[in-house]
């Protein structure tokens, strides 16, 4: 034991020398891209990501913690933490969520501890901050998919003793974006395998006559759903990577970019965003139709949400010299809804109005009508629709006549997804117009107390959509 202090001094000096060499950012990003795009087994994926990062940064330890379907925080992979890390992580899901409730920035533990001791930072959990510091944890890096926190990278100090640089943090932000999507894909892939196993078991229970009558149709429909789901998953990862690299080029992370090229990059970025939106719509449809869409019904202030949605789209309307306003809203109680899903429908309705209104105004209204319901209404002075168009407007891949002349990028999926989300709330959607050139009114209404299945405000899954033999649109 008398040699322990001397041994630690020698180890620190040796590590300082051995692990001083820096990594190549481009090679690291390439390696992470290969890992995240080629591995679907979630255990192998987490282990490969962890080893890749610890090797690159010479980190003393690393853990990947994930929030499961029940909302519990678990260790997905770890190196260097040893026994007891599972017990340490258990029960801290609420703390993790509170840390990243208002920010996506990386938590640098040593920096936050120093700021706390200087009196200019108040941690959300002081004891945890000091625990992490004593465990030689250097960084907490959040993992987000869209707006949903799915977990975090917990990264230890560097073996060299050096702090993590701004470049390290920038690279980690890009890597977490790729990794979060890949982890979500791997989890969905596992869900899909489990779903297929359960489906096979249910089919085996069915009568021989029913199997014979419907087998071909079920196989065809299952193949279509799986193709859309897996193809969309495979598309989402490279699109996210492209987005990250375009952002880095725009920020001149790889050197100065001429103005002409910057102009073209803006167009490329916008096109990539449209593809990401299309893929997300396809994934939404796949989850809803297969009954795998999760809903979290909670009391929600729709008046505040409507204002936020309108405010976010005012710049887009201003570009076209359109007047976009929200009518003053009378007192409306909180409504039991899934906030993220309803926000998505609001954005779809208002954004469509902006796209298909060449000139004039758009008026958004929220009201506690009809009795027991809350309605969100968007009136525009846009291109309008023929009465026949309104009957099939909320069907898959359907668009009103003449819309291609105003906005060419639409897919006919947005309103279909919107209707399915409102259906899940046991609400109603409606499109009205007196004819071409007379503007349109889009409305959705949801029950104040939420759907019957949301009793107690619990989360629930969507019911699988009923299949029909109707021919797809040409």
Task: Tell me the layout of helices and strands.
Layout: H1 4-18, H2 25-38, H3 42-57, E1 62-67, E2 73-79, H4 85-89, H5 93-99, E3 107-108, H6 109-118, H7 126-134, E4 137-145, E5 148-156, H8 166-205, H9 208-250, H10 259-289, E6 294-296, E7 298-300, H11 302-319, E8 323-326, E9 335-337, H12 339-355, E10 361-367, E11 373-380, H13 387-392, H14 403-406, H15 414-424, E12 428-432, E13 440-447, E14 459-461
Parallel strand pairs: 8-10
Antiparallel strand pairs: 1-2, 1-5, 3-4, 4-5, 6-14, 7-9, 10-11, 11-13, 12-13
Helix pairs in contact: 2-3, 2-8, 3-8, 6-7, 8-9, 9-10, 10-15, 11-12, 12-15
Contiguous low-pLDDT stretches (5 residues minimum) are: 15-19, 400-408, 467-474
Q: What percentage of residues falls in helices of 4 or more residues?
A: 40-55%
Q: What does the radius of gyration come to?
A: 26 Å
- CATH third-tier fold name of the largest domain: Beta-Lactamase
CATH top level of the largest domain is Alpha Beta
Question: What series of H and E elements makes up the topology?
Answer: HHHEEHHEHHEEHHHEEHEEHEEHHHEEE
- Number of DSSP helices? 15
